[in-house]
Fold this sequence. Notes:
The chain is an alpha/beta fold. The protein has a single domain, classed as TIM Barrel. It has 10 helices and 7 strands. It has a 7-stranded parallel beta sheet with strand order 1-2-3-4-5-6-7. Strand 4, helix 7 and strand 5 (144-149) form a beta-alpha-beta unit. It is globular and about 55 Å long. The model has no long low-confidence stretch (mean pLDDT 85).
Amino acid sequence: MGAFYPPDMPKRDWLSHYSREFNACELDFTFHTIAAPQLMDSLVRKSSPGFQFTVKAHHDMTHLQRDNETVFREFLQSLRPLSSGGKLGCIVAQFPITFSFSRENLDYLLLFRERLGDLPLVAEFRHDSWLQASAVEALRRNRIGLCWMDSPTFLRERISPVHASDILAYVRFHELESAYPQLPEIQELPQSVEKAFVFTHNRVWNQALKAIQRLKDLLT
C-alpha cells in the first residue's frame, strides 16, 4: 500500500489520508458483521468533511427473507453515527444469484425499502432478470437505485449508468478498461441524478486505488 500511503504512516491515519484524496469509500465488512456504533463514530471523526460512506447491508438482510427483523434493527442502530454525522452515502443491498425478479422477491425488496425509512438504498443484483424494463421501472418508482456493473449483461443490453436510476447512481467497474466507453455518461451523472458513486473492484492488491486514481484523472 506504500504506493498510496506513506510507508511510515500508521494504519490509524490511513482513512484521514484516503479521505483527503477521495470523497467516498464502500464499507464491505458490514456485510459480514454488525459494526459497533463506536466504530462508525470513529469513521466519522477520522474522515474529511463531506466524505461519504456507502455501506453494504448485512447478509442476513439480503440472503434471508424472513425472521430477520432483529438484524435490520441492529444494522440501522449501528449506522446512526454515519447518518447523524451526514456521512452515510447509501446502503448497498447485494442479493444472491438466486434472487430473481418475481412478485415475491419484489415484495421483499419493497419491505426492505420500507424498513430503511428515508435512508438511500441501492440494489445490486446477480440475476439478469432484474434488468428487464418492468423491473427497472419498479426500482425507479420506489426510489431504489440500481448498481450498474461492467458485466456482460449490462454491456450487452446497453443499460447505461445514467439510465439505470434517476435517483441514485452507483457504478462498479471490475476492469478499468470497461470505464473508457462510459466516461461521457459518467461525466453526466451529477446533472442526471441526485447522488452518484463510482468504484472499482480490488481484484489485485492495491490495484483499486491505482485504477480509481486513473479514473479520477480521466474525469477531471
